[in-house]
Each structure stands twice: as structure tokens, then as C-alpha cells.
Specification:
The complex is a heterodimer. By secondary structure, chain A is of the alpha+beta class. Chain A is 32% helix and 32% strand. Chain A has a five-stranded antiparallel beta sheet. In chain A, strands 5-6-7-8-9 form a five-stranded antiparallel beta sheet, covered by helices on one side. In chain A, strands 3-4 form a two-stranded antiparallel ribbon. By secondary structure, chain B is of the alpha+beta class. Chain B has seven helices and ten strands. In chain B, a hairpin with a 5-residue loop joins strand 5 and strand 6. Chain B has one domain: Aminohydrolase, N-terminal nucleophile (Ntn) domain (Glutamine Phosphoribosylpyrophosphate, subunit 1, domain 1, 4-Layer Sandwich). About 3% of the residues of chain B have low confidence. Chain B has a five-stranded antiparallel beta sheet. In chain B, helix 6 packs across helix 7. Classes of the chains: A alpha+beta, B alpha+beta.
Chain lengths: 231, 256
């Protein structure tokens, strides 16, 4: 079709038709990392549709069960649907086996379910953050079937900025407060530079006893605080 | 009365029996004896080996089968005419495939209970379909789960399964079970060797020609399945006989 009038084809998300091989980086910043005291999941709250901000306060971290969270990026509808399917699968297995599947199993199930739809424009880029029998565990799952275990993941258009901050400040033996500060700092910096991330910063922590919502802070306020306090 | 309700598997008799399933259980009672014991750190399967014909290759008769690295199964079945060893082969194959499929879809190895439930569900399906007969086998399934707990399960042709501390199936199952009820104590299974001796002693109660007709397999925690060679079994049998002699000597000394 024709591109909408007055739109420059240079901005990501609005090039029409998308140049071959160009992957639309989804308009969001989410991150997750695991450390001694659990797994941290953080995300911005801006839902964008091109340059239109559809929602200022969306929640991009979806709980799956008491000990498992997923950060979502990509198509919101796809993420929401597939997470509900995953919740159902895990609940059924819990009833049959008497215990919840591990995070590795949940990631395997999700990636196997989605890889059946490969090539049909599903777009789900998610980090599964959980605490299971093997301790804090983190998996990255993409809708083409990619499934990777790791210590730090950041997904979305703001992820390069977040990775910079995360790689600088991460170490496994952080305290809870250090981890919270690192996560907030990373998302705040990403929202500052990335046009498609903003709104607020959501912070979640998966502990041995289950997940908890730590805070939701305004991104601009947070960035100003950080710049005034940092040397 | 029975003859009117036992032709088809899917027909109940007026007094609530599924005769085909009960006949399958009779077939199991004709099979060679198998015993399973759950120790503190070890699980043991022992079967009575039928003496093979002169021209038959002994190594091709295998009654204890590994389902996966950490789970194995022994079955009792009528081995001579009706070919129910073939039933066991089919069930074992399906169980092996399921163990690997489970690893593929869910990353984790099966728990012993999961694979037992799978086998039991498979057997139950065959008691409720038309045109099929039940599997004529009972199985003892042993193994260790990820959490390091040893497990022993028994299934029967109707598709029920239960966990046991020790159990026997097959021809002289009743005798062996009575022996186990008397002799299965916390002390008896405290060490691996004592538990193995208990299994062999239980089988020696009912096996005619002693050690050379007994096959033993063990799984120790975090180790692979180990089949004992005939020599190793003989070593245990000799030890057991020595202990028996010493116990009798003590008894006769006391009574004098």
C-alpha cells in the first residue's frame, strides 16, 4: 500500500514497505537479570503504535504463576494471548504432576508452542523470570522459537541503552537495593534516549517466596533524580 | 454365567466384573517371579530366569529393561505359549518413547511416577476399547527422581498402579511377598548390600536351582542402571548361604 502522507521513511517503524532484512525493534524497554537474591524484571510503560502513544501506563510484566514472571515486548496482543496459554499449560501440568514445571520447562513449552506459528508474523520477545528448584533462573524466548538461558537480558528498542547501564553495574552478589537501583537506572536511561519508551518504570522482584511488585516510578522524575545524584 | 460376559473386553458382568481383565491377571500369575525392593539409597529388581533351551542364546532373554538412564522396569508375563512377552515389548517401547518425548517438550527427565502413570493409562485404554484385549503383563518400575528419592511402583493389567516399599509379581508372588513382609525392616535395607541380599533371599525362597537362575539389576542414586553378572550374583548367594549356616550353628549351640 501507500505510505501515509507526510511521513519520512527514515524513522524506524514508519518505513514503508520495510526494507528487506530490517527488523522492527519493538517500541519498548524491558530488562531482566538474575542475581543471588532472585530475578529482577523491569520495564517502561509506554505502549506505542508507531509515533502514537496508545497507553502511558501499560504493564509489560505479566505474572504467570507465583514464582514466574514474563517481561513482554512485541505485539501486545500476541504476548497477552500466549501468556494465557502458557498459564493454562503450567497449571494443568501442576495438577497432573503435583508440582509446577521448572522455568526451563516453561520456556521450552512456550517456545515450542510459538515455533509452530513461525512465518505467520507472531511477534513475542519475552524474558521468563522465575525461581524454581535450581534457584533463580532466567530465559529469553522469541516467537521464532529461540530459547536462551542467561544472566542478563534486555529486549526492545531501548535495549541497547539499557544494556550499557546493566553491563556496567551488574554483579551476581548485589544486594536487593543495589539491584533495584541498577534496574531503575537502566530503564530510566533507555526512556531518556529512546523515543518509543517512556511513561513510568515498573520494577518486579522474584524471590524464593514468590514475585512482588516493588515500585512504579515516573521515568522523567527518576532520570532527573539520577542525574542530580550521580557524580 | 461367566461365559456370557467374557467374550468382549468392554462388557461388564452383572456382578461388576470385567472378566477379560481378570483373565489377564491370571496370565500374569503364570509368569516367572519378579521382586522389587526400595532401599534407602538403592532400588533393586530381581527376576527368576527361566532355564533356556540348549540351543537358545541366553543373552537374548532380557526381563529387566531400562526405560531411561534413571528408571528401569521388570515385567512378569506368561512367557511360554501365548507370547505375552511380546506385550511387554510393546509397552516398554512406548514407555521409552514417552521418556524421550517428555525430555524434548519439557527439558526435565520423567519422574518414576509419571512414567508409571503413563504405562498404567496405556494399559487402562486397552481395557476400554473394542477389538482389543488387555496387556497380559504386570510391571515393577523402579528408579530415582530428580530429588534423589528412590521409588518403586507396580502396575497390573487393569491399569491401576501403586507405590510400594517392596513387592513381587508373577508365579510365586504370594510367597515372596509374605517373606518380604516378615523380613523388610529398616535395618534390612539400611545398607545397599543388605538390601541386595534381601532381594536375592526373597527370590531364593521360590527359585529352584539357586543363584544361576536369578537376574539382578540395581540403580544407585545418581548412578546408571547396573545389571549384575552371574558371578556377582553367585558371590551374594554364597555370602547368604554362609550367613545361614552361621545362624543355624548359633541356634544349635544355644539349644545345647
Amino acid at each position: 500500500g501507500d505510505p501515509p502522507d507526510g511521513v519520512s521513511p527514515c524513522l524506524p517503524g514508519w518505513s514503508w514497505p520495510p526494507p528487506p532484512g530490517f527488523r522492527l525493534a519493538h517500541g519498548t524497554t524491558t530488562l531482566a537479570f538474575r542475581f543471588r537474591h532472585g530475578v529482577i524484571a523491569a520495564a517502561d510503560t509506554r505502549s506505542s503504535c508507531g509515533s502514537y502513544v496508545a497507553c502511558l501506563a501499560s504493564c509489560k510484566v505479566i505474572p504467570v504463576h507465583q514464582h514466574l514472571l514474563g517481561t513482554t515486548s512485541g505485539t501486545s496482543a500476541d504476548c497477552a494471548t500466549w501468556y494465557r496459554v502458557l498459564q493454562r499449560e503450567l497449571r494443568l501440568r501442576e495438577l497432573r504432576e503435583g508440582q509446577l514445571p521448572s522455568v526451563a520447562s516453561a520456556a521450552k513449552l512456550l517456545s515450542a508452542m510459538m515455533s509452530r506459528y513461525r512465518g505467520l508474523d507472531l511477534c513475542v520477545a519475552t524474558a521468563l523470570c522465575g525461581w524454581d528448584r535450581s534457584g533463580p533462573t532466567l530465559f529469553y524466548v522469541y516467537s521464532d522459537g529461540t530459547r536462551l538461558q542467561g544472566d542478563i537480558f534486555s529486549v526492545g528498542s531501548g535495549s541497547p541503552y539499557a544494556y550499557g547501564v546493566l553491563d556496567r553495574g551488574y554483579h551476581y552478589d548485589m544486594t536487593n537495593q543495589e539491584a533495584y537501583a541498577l534496574a531503575r537506572c537502566a530503564v530510566a536511561h533507555a526512556t531518556h534516549r529512546d523515543a518509543y519508551s517512556g511513561g513510568s518504570v515498573d520494577l518486579f522482584h522474584v524471590r524464593e517466596s514468590g514475585w512482588e511488585h516493588v515500585s512504579r516510578s515516573d521515568a522523567c522524575v527518576l532520570y532527573v533524580e539520577l542525574s542530580s545524584s550521580a557524580p | 454365567m461367566a461365559s456370557r460376559y467374557d467374550r468382549a473386553i468392554t462388557v461388564f458382568s452383572p456382578d461388576g466384573h470385567l472378566f477379560q481383565v481378570e483373565y489377564a491377571q491370571e496370565a500374569v500369575k503364570k509368569g516367572s517371579t519378579a521382586v522389587g525392593i526400595r532401599g534407602a539409597n538403592i532400588v533393586i529388581l530381581g527376576v527368576e530366569k527361566k532355564s533356556v533351551a540348549k540351543l537358545q542364546d541366553e543373552r537374548t532373554v532380557r526381563k529387566i529393561c531400562a526405560l531411561d538412564d534413571h528408571v528401569c522396569m521388570a515385567f512378569a508375563a506368561l512367557t511360554i505359549f501365548t507370547g505375552l512377552t511380546a506385550d511387554a515389548r510393546v509397552v516398554i517401547n512406548r514407555a521409552r518413547v514417552e521418556c524421550q518425548s517428555h525430555k524434548l517438550t519439557v527439558e526435565d527427565p520423567v519422574t518414576v511416577e509419571y512414567i508409571t502413570r503413563f504405562i498404567a493409562t496405556l494399559k487402562q485404554k486397552y481395557t476400554q476399547s473394542n477389538g482389543r484385549r488387555p496387556f497380559g503383563i504386570s510391571a515393577l518400575i523402579v528408579g530415582f527422581d530428580d530429588d534423589g528419592v528412590p521409588r518403586l511402583y507396580q502396575t497390573d493389567p487393569s491399569g491401576t498402579y501403586h507405590a510400594w516399599k517392596a513387592n513381587a509379581i508373577g508365579r510365586s508372588a504370594k510367597t515372596v511377598r509374605e517373606f518380604l513382609e516378615k523380613n523388610y525392616t529398616e535395618d534390612a535395607i539400611a545398607s545397599d548390600n543388605e538390601a541386595i541380599k534381601l532381594a536375592i533371599k526373597a527370590l531364593l525362597e521360590v527359585v529352584q536351582s539357586g543363584g544361576k537362575n536369578i537376574e539382578i539389576a540395581v540403580i544407585r542414586r545418581n548412578q546408571a542402571l547396573k545389571m549384575f553378572s552371574a558371578k556377582e550374583v553367585e558371590l551374594y548367594v554364597t555370602e547368604i548361604e554362609k550367613e545361614k549356616e552361621e545362624a543355624e550353628k548359633k541356634k544349635s549351640k544355644k539349644s545345647v
